[in-house]
Design a protein that fits this description.
- The structure is a single chain.
- The protein has about 325 residues and is mainly beta.
- Helix content is about 10%, strand content about 45%.
- The protein has one domain: Lipocalin, CATH 2.40.128.140.
- The chain is built from three helices and twelve strands, in the order αβββββαββββαβββ.
- Strands 1-2-3-4-5-6-7-8-9-10-11-12 form a twelve-stranded antiparallel beta barrel.
């Protein structure tokens, strides 16, 4: 039954690829970020400061929690799960912000992207089939975008703290609107050389009021990977993930679906429908601790846009169940 679902999911994604439909910014569910525990907490943070810039995707942060108790979340009914595979459930809280190149001017920056921010609560599942060497993630995002997402307050507060330029254009940001998005992601292991080198193919589909898009690509991991038989072993590796994102709708550029009262948006005809995305980074795992440094390069997202980039850090902790960490119940990379 699981194989039928997997192939059905792939068929949908590949069909959409053919009809040309940007991937989410903070992807904490991809396999090279797996934490081998039934219960963990992780903080994910992105900022274009790592790329010595202050434009496009400016900042994002995400608080992520996975625990057995979250199996009781009623929203799990719309997520992907199976009795025949290991499934973990989690919640996360995410905030993302976008700015044009000139953040100081109070005037609209025509030809550049508008200011935009979104705030979301996410329910997600991670389904791992070790026999088929597949991984399916599903995610329901509910939240708001616009001034209600306090993007202005967040960026202004950070810039004051670091002595940076104070942004003046947030009054022209994308207006208030709802965010309801659903994501399905699929990965398949194609090659493994012992616990040193690993290659996975992956495909993603996002449908909703914030982003509607799909992506396809692969990730390669090289280093000292964990073995499920020795889960407390130190794991250190580098990863690379090239992919192509095909876009149908992007509310951070075009405005929300329900509120047309926006000072400035990018017209649909100026949206780049094929965007190329390259992630790379380094991960270290040891007992309870997860550490990561990442970088991303993204080709222009609209006709007058530019190549953009950002970096990120992630810190996670395996949590105890009933006072102990159970090393026999793990999820492999």
């Amino acid at each position: 039954m699981l194989n039928i679902k997997v192939y059905f999911l792939l068929s949908i994604i590949l069909c959409l690829l053919g009809h040309k439909i940007r991937a989410q910014k903070i992807d904490h569910l991809v396999s090279f970020r797996a934490i081998e525990s039934e219960s963990y907490f992780r903080f994910n943070y992105d900022n274009d400061y790592f790329d010595s810039s202050d434009r496009d995707y400016s900042q994002g942060y995400n608080f992520e929690w996975v625990a057995p108790i979250l199996k009781k979340n009623p929203l799990n009914k719309v997520l992907w799960g199976s009795k025949n595979s290991s499934t973990k459930y989690g919640l996360s809280f995410e905030h993302i912000g976008f700015t044009p190149k000139n953040i100081v001017s109070e005037e609209i920056q025509f030809g550049d992207r508008p200011f935009a921010a979104a705030l979301m609560l996410k329910s997600f599942s991670i389904l791992q089939n070790k026999v088929a060497k597949t991984r399916i993630v599903s995610e329901l995002n509910i939240g708001m975008m616009g001034p209600i997402a306090f993007g202005k307050q967040m960026q202004t507060g950070i810039h004051k703290a670091i002595g940076g330029s104070i942004p003046g254009g947030w009054k022209n940001q994308i207006g208030n609107d709802i965010v309801v998005n659903y994501r399905l992601g699929f990965e398949k292991e194609f090659l493994r050389v012992k616990n040193i080198f690993l290659v996975n193919g992956n495909a993603d589909l996002n449908v909703g009021t914030l982003f509607t898009n799909t992506s396809i690509g692969f990730n390669a991991i090289l280093g000292l990977l964990k073995n499920t038989a020795t889960p407390n072993r130190v794991s250190i590796y580098a990863y690379a993930q090239p992919k192509v994102n095909l876009i149908a709708y992007d509310a951070s550029l075009q405005g929300g679906l329900l509120n047309n009262n926006n000072s400035y948006t990018i017209p649909a005809e100026d949206i780049e429908r094929a965007v190329y995305h390259f992630n790379w980074g380094f991960v270290m795992k040891f007992k309870k601790l997860y550490l990561e440094y990442s970088r991303t390069i993204l080709t222009k997202e609209f006709s007058t846009g530019e190549l953009s980039g950002w970096g990120g850090i992630r810190v996670g902790f395996r949590l105890k169940l009933n006072g102990i960490i159970n090393p026999n119940k793990t999820f492999s990379n």
